[in-house]
Structure formats: structure tokens, C-alpha cells
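hiii so my PI (J.) wants the whole complex modelled not just the main chain, which honestly fair. so below is everything: two entries, each one labled with what it is. i double checked the lines twice but i was tired so who knows lol
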Amino acid sequence: MFGLTNECVLSVEEEFHSMEDYQGRPVRWCPGCGDNGILTAVQRLCRDEQLPPEKSVFVSGIGCAARFPHYMNTYGYHGLHGRALPTAEGVKIRRPDLHVFVNMGDGDCCSIGTAHWIHSIRRNMKMVVMLHDNNVYGLTKMQASPTTPTGQKTNTTPFGAPLRALNPLTTTLGVTNASFVAQVVEWMPELLYDIIRQAFHHNGLAFIRILQRCPHFMPNNFTSLLSDPKNVLLLRHKNGMQVSDAMARLYPTHEEHDPSNLHRAREIAEDENRVPVGILYRNSSIPRYEDMHKPHRVPTWEQNKAALESLFDKHGIFPDGGGAQKGNGNGSR
Amino acid sequence: MTGAAPTNGPAPDAAEGTFWTPSTETGQPVEPEAAPENKPADANRILDELRAFYGLGKRPANTGNSDGAAPLPALLHAYRDLARVRHTYPLLLNADNPTAAVRPLTAVIDELLANVAGDDDEGRQLRHNVLRLEAIMRSMLDGRDGERLSLVWDRAAATLFETSRLTGDKATALRDNIAAARKALVADGELVACGPNTGARIFQTCAAASWRACCESWSTELDGLIRQLQDVLSADFSRSDAAMTPEHLGKTLGTDSDLDVEAMSSLVRSAPHGGGLSDARRERVLGLIATLTALQPLFATGTPGSTPIQPTQVWDDFAAASEEHARRMRAMVAFFRSARIARLETRNQYREAAHDAYFASFGERNLTADELALCPPVLVRVTDDALSGDGAARLFEILGGRAAIKVLLEVRSPYRVGEDGLQPALSINWAGRLAGMATSLNNAYVTQVPLSRADVLSARIAGGLRYAGPALFCVGAPSHVGRGIAPHLAAAATAEARFTPLINFDPSRGDTLADCFDLSDNPQNERTWPVETFAYRGADDKEATRELAFTPADLLFLDDRTAGHFWSVPASHWHVAMAPLADMLAMPAAEAAGKIPFILTVDRDNRIGRAVVSHGVTELSRQCRTCWHALRESCGIESSFARRAVTAERERLAQEKEREIEAIEKDYVAQLEQDVGELTREIVQRIAGQLLGAEVGGVVTMPTMPASAPRGDTTAAPTEAPAVSSPEPEEEEKVSFDDPYIDTPLCTSCNECTQLNNRVFGYNSNKQAEIKDATAGPYSDIVRAAELCPVHIIHPGKPANPGEPGVEEWVKRAAQYN
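here's the output for the full assembly
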């Protein structure tokens, strides 16, 4: 309009960030590990969106995938097992200006962190949550995880896993306030990038289950998908995942799935015959917890300082043995 | 705040933020929280106050404006900070480049980047840095005009280097990028920001470029013609006695010559030679040379010399321009008369008996189209003030004639504002309608373009200068816009508000209006008002959008002279009877009668407000709409006649169909009654026959209804999942390549191949593997990498070195990956 367009508003920050600018320490994952592909896709997203490294945070728990923050040249938090999500929520609620990403393995998310997973979905705070699901505990040398397939022999299930695997998609889709649920496999870089990009632009918590190969402990886990592409069901839609012609020819089984259709999303998630790849569900109108609890008035610096002083006074050490009285001026802190 | 209403001042509620919850996160406009519901008595009082303002311009004494900080019409709010928006200005003016005399700086930079910036990370970085430089150049030009692009570039680069916080490799890359782009920068010229004289600068630049392009080939021809005439005189002189004197021969041969010039003079005199030119012809040729040489600088391709005609001179008076045109035509008629005689003279074909009479009566009517195109048009630049008095009559006289007078009319105000009262009288400035009126003459080239569309304007001016007749270029360049709006944005707003629609009328395109008339440059010309999606956050802090129309009221809101026509009411005064102005204008009269029109505004603190619009502004908007609709009809976008005919025909067809249905129903009922009667009779007869024992065999066959078609919707299975397509893969031709290659887009960056041999394998800018150098390692490494690759995208091909030890075994292992 007016011969102008908002699309051409310049975003010319001080520095252009290349992919190398987002690369942190040398990667220590095994060669062939699917985590490498996820790392590359995320670094590409950061480069394409020109995310300021000082405004980006990667939070993880414990596991192979949890080493992710080490390999990003951004802020990161390698925390406690299963506690990545509450940490990330804490970051987001106090610093809504930061781009928050969460990387969890299947143990981190679906075992010890299940309660946080469920309630984080319900809170729907804006962040990208990546579940690196290789169906096994790799860091601790091959124990069964909640998503290990039935019959899979591991160190903790020498006669084969007895239970049916937990389905993170149906679980997430069943939680109140789920607003973005997608599944992708790390060996399709084009689709992996597209899903992460759309998740980044989603206005709420975007949950992505990324099926990931563990070539060391589960070398044959996804062989059927790799050898027979027809077992992969591509979910295409103008409002969903974008699939190039080349990719569509490589993976010929498609379905036109509208991501706003929750009922169909649940049906697709439950189907054990094919592995869906795409955005199963998206609803941008679901309220976000941080919006509901956003303070109407941002505290001033003086108020913050007074609150901190008050907090410090509670734990102050007073050489003269006096009590911790606010503002008595006798103690040293 | 500029443009404040006389009784302005933020209302206490707004100032204290009672109704507002500004968004601190996104910067999006925020809707105020709904005010507590008014009691019926208060609601009636508020409605009375709103009506009093709308009809009489009276505001309640205790309620001022709730303007907040510098409110703007909602659709303009997004353009408050133009420094970061790439737009048409500044312009690069270069009259030496006829194909691109006027170009936006952004177009120059985009072309430059297309040549030097690739798609990889280095290219993106270069683009990033050059765009930063462009932003600095734009800010440097605020209020300054006429500097060379190359100089501004160098100053901006110095500023960029000084202010950049980059260090190390990044700082070096920045300097390298700017240097590389500077080296590739070939375009140069004057950079011009948008200002009061920009329209005239564009006009003059286009005129100079157009003139140079026009006379480029003719200049060479004219120089040749003059030389040939001089040759005729030289040849005549060489046969004269004066040329055969010893003195002249001595001068011709030079002082060092040993020749006996006396003997040579006797010799050449004794040789037979024909007679020279007749005196009349010599005089004629001398006269031709004098006439042609006098105007030779006019057509010079370099810097024009002294000439009686200045092709880029601009006049500001219609009468003087007409006189100048007459003077020029006299000069040009004499010039082309001489040129034509010169052509005959140089070919020795001029016959006095045949040609003298013709050239004695040679006049403007004898000029060809090519010759007319070489007559420099007279340029006139006026503002709408010049149309008072007899100015308009003189202008229409020019536009209705044949004289190539090109008029630039700068429309400073598309409406007029009276001087009295809080709500001064408003009326449309008919100068803003002049372009539309001029098209009805069907004689002149007419265009109307706002200053904001400099690219369109320069193209239209170039077209008008080529046209062999009068031309009118109306340029929307409003001068009475406040509230910090940039001049070109204000000009764009006049066009968006349909005050000065974009018009192009070129009579040379054909004989019909459809050929000549064009409104396609207007924004959303199929609509009454342009509509844009407005994104904001609701009172509940949820993101929302709504479609907003840009109306004349939005433009008038920017003018401090019309502040009394708007009342920015606090949220507590929002009433159900209020309706957006565009909606109200679209309502039937009866429905609109009870409405109070308003426009949506947003202040500097992102707070959404409502400004109630006066009756005067509403009527002016209605008038604009009517004019716009009439213009669209002229251009064939819409036809009220056709619409009326279609409605009548539709009604006629509907009535006809109704009659047909009635007839079918009538026939059906009659047939049904007849069939039921016959059937009843047959049943009665059969029953009677059976009862009476008359039926042979004693079996009665009752008539049966034909079986109804199965109802698919009730027998179908419950809703099934959408069909999953799984087409059979097409047969693909088996291909094999000798060189190794990788399906790079499918690479998962797993590091297997790069860790195996990082000289053979490497990553591209997306960190996906590719063959760096197949000969940098043994063939066995490529085959091993293919075996290790988890997604099997490495194809080893054939070995580059067939003599490699054990190569046969590796070729066998590679076969399954090729």
C-alpha cells in the first residue's frame, strides 16, 4: 500500500551471521548419528532468520541429544535429567524477548520428564521443542526407553522389550491446549528444515518428534523406512508441510492433511502401518501462558533493585551479630 | 503533536492508561479495553453528543480530544519510521542515460547486488552490508539534493566503517564487501530526495534524456549535410581564379616546397576548366549553411552550445509558452526547409524553376512526422494556483490544439479548505480533477501520477514527450500535510484516497477509449476504496486482523487545517451507532441516517483510537467516491448502463423461468390426476371382476411403484479417512555416471564421509556434503564413504585412476551404489 510494503522493511543489524557463527564446540556425537542432521537444520534456521546469538537459548536435559547446547554458539543450559522444559519456561516467562529452543531425548521427555512434558504442552508457551527420538538410551550404552519397539533386545530387556512403545504423538495430541504437533525424520533434511522453520514461526509451543537413527546401538531400527519409502506417509497441505517435487517422487505415499483437523490428526498418529511425516496439528489461536500472566506494568529498575536488596538482606551476614534488618546499614553483604 | 485539534489534549482516562494496555512486546497497535457498559441514560447522552459533533461541529465542553501522542490513520501507522523501509526515494537522475534517466536508488542497488552477490553465505553477507550502506545513504540525503551517487556512496561507506562495531574478520569482510560493490557500481548521477521541486527535476531530466535520444542520429546526419554543402563551395572555389594564383598555390603547398608556384599557376590557368557556381546558387548554399549551422548546437549530443532554442528551458506562463512555440516553429520550419534544399543541392538536383515556388510557400503543414519529432517541445511547469483567472482557459486552449506544449501541473492540494470557523468549509479542488476532464478532449496526452510513484511518473512523462501534440502531466504533490508524514507518503495517500487517481490517456494508442484510457496503475482499482489488512492486538491481548479501507477522511485527518472536522473520542464514548466511514458510505440512505462515521487511528504509543468524522468530511468523501466511479465508467472498468441492463435481463429471465415452472407444474398435476383416475378405475374393475368371478385364473396383479434408487448417503459406510494415495513408482531410466557424485540435498550432515577424507568430501554453505575433489584421495575412500553413508547418497562412479592397486575389487563393491 502507498507504493510501499512492510515486507521490504530492512532488518539490517550490525552483523551478518553465517552458519559458522552458530557453531559451538566440536561435535562429539558418533559419526552417522542423526543428531548431526538436526544440528545442521537448526543452524541453518538461525542463519536464515538471522537470529542474534545473544537472543537465542537452547535448553536441554540429559542424554546424547542434550549435548545440543554445547554445539550451538548461543546461550545454552545443559540441565537436569527430564527438567529441560520447566527451565525453558522459566527463561521464557522472564525473558519473552528470547528465542527459546528445547532439545530432549526420548528418555528425557517421555520417561523422567513426562509430567513436565504434559504440562508444558498445556501451558503452550512460545518455544520450539524438539524430541530427538532414537528409541533407545544411547548415552548409557543401550537401555530400553519408553519408545523402544516391542521385542527389541537391550541391556535392560535382554529377552526383548515386553511393552508396546509409547506414542509421543498421540500423547501430545491428547493434551489440552496442544497447538503444534509435527513429526519428521532426520534423514530428510529438506522436510526437517521446513518443519523446524514452521515451528519457529508458530505462536505457541511447537512440539516436533524427530525420528533419529542411532547407528551404533540401533543400526537396523529404521531400516524398513529407509529401504521402502512407501512406508513414509507425507502429510502435505497448503497450510502444512511444503514438499518439493523431487521429495514427492522419492516418497510416493502422500495425504492431503489439513493441520486444523484434530480428529484426523489423531487418527494418523494412531496408525501403526505408516510413519507420518509432516504437521499433524496446528492451532494458533490457543492462548499462551506467558500472555495470561504478563504483567500490565513492567517493574522499574528501582523496584527491581529494592526487591533484590530485600532478598539479599534475608541472607545477609552481619559481623556485629545484628539481625537482618532491612536497611539498617550495619551489615556487609 | 502536529495537526492537533483546537481543543486537543489527552483525556485524563487515556493519559492515565485506564483503558489502555499497551503491548510492550510486539509493538503492534493495541485495542483499548472495553469501557464499562454505559447506563441507558448515559448512552443516550453520548449519542446526542456524537450527533451534535457530526451535524453541528459542537463538542461537549468537558470532553476534549483523546488524541494520545501524534495519532495517524491506522493504515499509515505502519509507515511512521520510513528510515528502515526501502522505498522509491531517493532517485538517481541521469539525463545522459535515455533508457534509465530516472531510477530509484533501490533499483540501482538491486541491480548491483544481482551482479555481485551470490546465493551462498558470502553473497548474503555482501547483500547485508550493501543494504546497510543504502540505509545510511538514504538518511544522509534527508533535506539535501543533487549530490553525485559516487560521492554519497563514499561518504556513507566512511560513516559505516566509523560507526560499525565489527572487529577482526567481520570488519575486513565489511570493507571487502563495500569495495567489491563500489567497483561494480557503474551507474552514477544525481541523487534526489523527495521535495517541493522533485516533480520539476524529474520533468527536466526526462525532457533532457528524451531530447538527446531523439536527436542522436539526426545530429550525425546534420553534420554530414553541412560538410557536403561546404564541399560544394570548396569545389567551386578551387575552380576560381583566386585559387590559381601563385600566392594561394604557395599557401596550399606549404612554405618549404621547392616547387615553382609561378610556373604551376601558369600551368593550371592554361588547363581547361568549367565555369563555377552561379551567383544565385552560391548565395543559396551560403544561406543554407548559415541557417543549418545556427541550429546545429541544438542537436549536439554533447554539452549544447549557444543556440536560439533551449530544449530543456521550462516556462511558467501559458501565454509565453504559446508564443515561444510559435517562434520555435518558425525557426524549425526555416531549418527543415533549408535541410531539404541542402539535400537537393548536395545531389545537384535543385531546379530553381521547379523548387523555388514550392519552398517559397513551405510551412509547418509541409513538415513530416520525423521532422516534427525533431522540433523541441515547449516545457511548462505550473502549480494549481496558476489555473486561477484565465489560466485554465489558456491551458485548455493548449490541450485542444496541435502545438507540442508539454505542461507539468503540480497539484499541491486536492481539496480546498475555507478559512472560517472550527469546521472550515471543504470542497474538492477541481485542479485535482483536471486530468480527468482533459481526457474528454480526446486530443492531448494526459497523465496523473502521485510523486510517490516516480518510476511510473518518469515513464509517463517520457511517453508524453514522444507524443506529437500537447501533453498534460498532473503530479500529486500535496503541500498541506502534517503529523510528520514524508512528502512522498502524503502524495501516495492522495492517490490511495481516490483524490487524485492515477490516469493515463494516450490518444496515439488507438481510436477508442479502451485503447487510450488506462486506470490500471491505481491500487485495487476494482474497489471503491483500497482495502488493506490491519493487524493489531485486541483488548484481550490476542492477535487479530481486520480489513480497513483508506478513505479521503484518512487523508484529511493529516491536515492541521481540518482538525476541527475530527473528534478523537475516548473509549468511554464509543457507541454502537458508530460505524466506519467506508461502511457507512456503502449503506442505503435509510440505514446510514442513524450512524456516526469514524476512522480508526493509532497513536505513537500503539494505542488504537476512533476519530469521529464531521458531516463535511463525509460529504467530501461521498463526492470523491462519485468522481472515482465516474472515472471508472469512462475507463470501462464498470458501466452503470451495463449493470442496469444486466439486472433487467436477469429479472426478465427469472420471470420467464417462473412461468415455465408454473406450466410444468400445471401439466404435471393434470397428468397425475389423469393417471390416478385411470389407475383407480382399473383397480376397481379388477376387484369387481374378481369378486364377480370374471377374472381368469383368479390372480390379481397389483400395480407396483418403481423401485427407488438406493440412497447412497444412508447406506454408505461411516465417514472414512481420506484416501491415501500410493501410486506405483514410475519406471525410471537407469543412468550411470563415471564421475562420483552426491545427492547433496539429501545429506544429513552426519560427518561420516568428511571424517573419512576431508580432502575428497566437504560441506557446502548449508553444511551438506559434496565432492570437493575426487582425485584428492584414493578411489577406495569414496567407496568406503558410500558404504558408510547412512542415507546412501554417495555414488562412487568409476575410478579416476584405473591403475590404483586393487581397484577391481573396489569397483565391484561400488557397483551397488552407482
